[in-house]
Give the backbone structure.
Amino acid sequence: MTDRLRALTMNLLTYVSADGPARQDVLRRVLVPELQPDVVALQEVTHDQAAELLGPDYAILDLPGGDPTYGGECVATRCPVVDVHKLDSAVAVEIVTPLGHILAVGHKGTYELDAEIIREQQALSTARFVEDLNQPRLPVILLGDFNAAPDSASIRFLSGRQSLNGQSVRYEDAWEARHGSDPGPTFDPRNPLVRAGQMPLERGRRIDYIMVRSGAHGPYLDVADCRRVFTEPVDGVWASDHYGLLADLQQPPHPPGEWA
């Protein structure tokens, strides 16, 4: 797909939980050989684990604050890397892709259900970070486990539905672009690892995202496809308590703001 860019985000569930070696084997067999992402955001992963899963063709850029045992978050890419910038809540990687230079930004949101105010602050910080950094303007992909459902304030802010602290941005939600109001949960009690985990009363939420920055006339990249992955066990093994999200991005028919 020389005219497309494939992006993936997935929370892997810490290796020390729920038979990590078996889950790592499933991920190793599927993640790169079958899905072949160009840009990857991984969560609950150590640097060494990510390197083993992805192989030598991927550059791995860690977000600040990871734990050597339980892991942290990273953005990885097999595209040439031009520059890297880090913030507490994000890492931004300028890459050269079949679609031109793109800024791939891994964003994290705190997980606690009662901490939406922190997720708002993190979303605001990441948005300001990208706006200050992205001069001249490049297409931006924002991806990761944001730990917030689509109707939460942090996601409403990122998707352009409300402002925060006098600032507004707009990122198109890749899942919503292709599936509309389909809830598409990525943290789903149908997955037995969710029920077995620390949130046994989880009802199901879409909290993992791939988003594309928009300007006044729409997103700078089109979403050709978006789907959940690892939604079923492989040889009886669930890869994680999250489903992954995979999106294929392409150039729009003509630049937003111009007539064809």
Q: What stands out?
A: Residues 116-133 form the longest helix (18 residues). The domain at 4-250 is CATH 3.60.10.10 (Deoxyribonuclease I; Chain A). The CA atoms of residues 224 and 248 lie 5 Å apart. The chain is about 20% helix and 30% strand.
